Amino acid sequence: MTPEQALRWLETKGCEGEVYELKQRSYGIEIKRGEVELVEAGEQHGFAIRVLLAHRMGFAYGNELTQELLDKALSVARVSPRDEHLAFAGEQSYPSVRGIYDSRLASLSFDELEDKLEAMLAPAQSLGVEVTQVSIAWEVSEERMFNSHGVEVSEEGTEIYAHLSAVAKRGDDVATGLYFDASRSFNLDFEAVGETASRLAKESLGAQRLETGDYAVVLRPMAMAELVENVLIPAFSADNVQRGRSRLAGMLDEQVFGEELSVVDDATLEAGLESSRFDGEGTACRSKALVEKGVLRGYLYDIYTARKDGVESTGNAFRSGFSTLPRIDASNFIIQGNGGLDEDEALVVHGLIGAHTANPVTGDFSVETRNAFYGGSPVRKAILAGNVYDLLSSVSGFGRDVTQISGVVTPSVGFSNVRVVG
Amino acid sequence: MLREVRELLELPARFVDITLHDVESTSILMKDGSAKEIATGRSFGISVRVLDRGWGFAYASSAGELKDAAERALRGARLAKERVELADVKATRDKVEAIAKLHPSRATFEEKLDYLFRAHDVAKSYKSVVSTSFAYNDASVKIIYLNSEGAEVEMRYPRVAFYAQIFAKEGAKIQFASERVGATSGLEALVNVEEVAKEACEKAQRLLYARAPPSGEFTVVIDPKLTGVFIHEALGHAVEADHVVQGESILAGKLGQSIASELVTIYDDPTLKQGFGSYFYDSEGVKAQKKAVVEHGVLRSYLHSRETAAKLGQEPTGNARAQGYNFPPMPRMSNTYLARGDASFEELIEDVKQGVYLLGSRGGEVDTARGVFQFSAEEGYLIEKGEVTTPVRDVALSGETLEILRRVDAVSKNWGVHIGYCGKNGQLVAVGDGGPAIRTVATVGGTQ
After folding, report:
1. Which of A147, A175, A203 is the last residue of a domain?
2. Is A118's pLDDT higher than 90?
3. At B368, is the pLDDT very low, low, confident or very high (cuts 50, 70, 90)?
4. What's the mean pLDDT in A286-299?
5. pLDDT at B187 over 80
6. Does one domain contain both A107 and A216?
7. What is the spatial distance between Cα B9 and Cα B94, in angstroms, rounded to a whole number?
8. By residue range, what is the domain housing residue A103?
9. Chain B residues within an 8 Å CB radius of A166
10. Which candidate from B65, B84, B174 shows the least CB-CB separation from A362?
11. Does B61 lie at the interface with A, CB-CB under 8 angstroms?
């Protein structure tokens, strides 16, 4: 059946409904060692239904939109708790978001990647390091949302991703480097991915242990993004705030970080990796200030948590496929601050190992470093231990190298006093 | 449909395999006593691999697109340039089904919800508990694997899991703790959800009174849960043979060599009864088998797909796994555990002058090429003069594979395997990790 038919049938049952449809084509190539070993081309198509029956929500998913799917969603609604705050999006206008669909990427052929691959592999060769893994993957997706309140909106998006891992060896000494980048269009700098990973591996040879102590630390965008994603973003979720699981609960309009730091969540960012016109509930996406000069200005909401707080949804309910419910998450989470970065006497850290094990509630973290350098010399093993809230209150400077890593847009950020366990 | 699949196995290529996945699942998330998010559905998909020189891989989410997917895979295979060989295996024809006393497909939503209500009732009695999440997940999996060598394997199994996440508060202090239980089986694996909830509540409460850990190198005693994650990170990933082939494993070229203390024997065992990472056949139709990865400190085997086994001239081990139809298989762990020893827990502790005893896991990560890994404990205690003393929290450990495995100097009798999900190259698969409590030396990443 069509989404319109599904909604009409649900109406006859006294039910509000919402239909989400996802069509996706995915492509990829993988090199393990040597030449291209695997070429992938996949297609996926699925539907998710949400229904509201007397303030009870039901959800079901499947590959096709069928009567069975609607029945399943209704049967879920019947056993679900009644909650007056549950609601679907009303009819509204959507922003236009630029740079999220590239027709060239949508019709890209594998041949067009040959010289890109060469560009990725060349730096390793000239630097004398071994490439251990390369992958390029791209995706063309189409999302459509319909609901009983007249929401009818769709979007096409493209994204390409490139990754390279390299190993440098000298005698028994082994060093690794990895880097990845993604873009909504085919303008991705493939050579830079190969160059960065290879250089990191090579420069990390001859690493020495660092003495335990308190150091000035600079987190490069990739390390910064790993920490922010795992420890900081959950604290802005209104769901966590309302349930007392966030350090930022009850802190609105208070100074929570140093005043040199601001944070914006902007789903309308041109060419942003997480940019979109509408979220997984059909709410229009927008930009919102979360932290202004260290002062907390807002949280990330979906419709349910917004109604609980008597505010509007911020359009931050996102779906990760058709088989899961929309969940609150950041879109493009942008860390802002200006200048003052001094790297001379700092431990410069490119990546982290184990950032997902940090404590998202208290902000406490203790993570191993990847490609860390002190005074320009590579460091063998160093754990960074501390608390994200203390860290973000002691920012010593921001670099000019603003980069988007997954959902986080950030420059290198310097911190004055971090425990390093060597 | 199977007839069409069999016809496509005749594509002009060196090897073709086709897998049909049909998964029905239900998940329920109860937030603070209210079953907020109930989702149910079914996802069907087909994956096709074609081997010409290298691999072409394609998938589709409807039966009508099977032929189209096969053609895409064939075109892909012709583009791949790296020569891939496959180790020989017996082409099996089999039909297997896991025994489930209470199959999730036969249970009602109300019965499934009941596990969560029971858990919530336990949590309610704790004053300091301010927020709870309990989750129930089940999947009824049907996989049919066929290849051009004549293999035809049908597998059906359910998998269930229950998660508890508890937040406790005292004054301005807030801490959380998690517990989980699950199995490749029916709902009978969830009989003790009350105990699981209780353990999570007590742990969250204990953490309120724990302080930040010390930093530096310490003798550490780790409980079975953490031993499982330690083995998984310190050793397991480095014996996945794709890492070995790609030149990114610290254990490359070390088969037959001593890499760990004599007390260390490690198995990877997908045949473990009800294990969360158990399976009958891997994603290439190779029969699951228990194998010793390390025996008394000596490295005995890597974990192989047919491709990596051929590349290294070794026997296939049945460790090729794919997350679902939309992912190609690669070497993965199943249930990986350290064999038990003969020490009592007291013996592990009694001669430690200054150390840390660590329990529970919050996961870990490894750089296999350098053999540097990190893993995190949920809670811990200082060990002073042979006694367990002050509680500590947020304790992360790091170490180097070859060093830390050699320094294992005591292995206890108590033993358990726990459930987990392992992520690798964007694919998540269910695994079991386990072992006894052990003693070794690691870097403790505290703030003091």
Report:
1. A203
2. yes
3. very high
4. 98
5. yes
6. no
7. 18
8. 3-203
9. none
10. B174
11. yes
**Do residues A328 and A364 both lie within one domain?**
yes
Q: Which residues, at least 6 apart from A26, have a Cβ–Cβ distance to it below 8 Å?
A: A40, A41, A42, A43, A44, A137, A138, A139, B326
A58 and A153 together in one domain: yes
Note the pLDDT tens digit of each residue in A35-82.
999 999 999 999 999 999 999 999 999 999 999 999 999 999 999 999
* Cα–Cα distance measured from residue A255 to residue A13, given in angstroms and rounded to the nearest whole number: 50
CATH of the domain at A167: 3.30.2290.10
For residues B194 and B192, give the distance between their C-alpha atoms in angstroms, rounded to a whole number: 5
Residue A250, pLDDT score:
95
List the domain boundaries for chain B. Answer: 2-208, 215-445
**pLDDT for the residue numbered A33:** 80
Q: How far apart are CA A226 and CA A222, in angstroms?
A: 6
Q: What is the mean pLDDT of residues B134-144?
A: 98
pLDDT in tens, B218-261: 999 999 999 999 999 989 999 999 999 999 999 999 999 999 99
A152 and A18 in a common domain: yes
Query: Mean pLDDT over residues B333-351, rounded?
Result: 96
Q: Does domain B2-208 have CATH number 3.40.605.10?
A: no
Tokens, residue B162: 């229950």
**B171: burial class by Cβ within 10 Å (0-12, 13-18, 19+)?**
exposed
H helix runs in B14-132, sequence order: 66-79, 109-124
* Same domain as A218, residue A80: no
Query: Looking at chain B from residue 261 to 320, which residues have their Cβ under 8 Å from any Cβ of chain A?
Result: none
If one counts the domains in chain A, the total is: 2
pLDDT at B448 over 90: no
> Phi/psi class of residue B33: alpha, beta or left (left: φ > 0; alpha: ψ in -120 to 50)?
left
Residues A160 and A263 in one domain: no
- pLDDT exceeds cutoff 80 at B447: no
Interface of A with B in 228-247 (CB under 8 A): 239, 243-245, 247
Final residue before a domain boundary, out of A171, A188, A203: A203
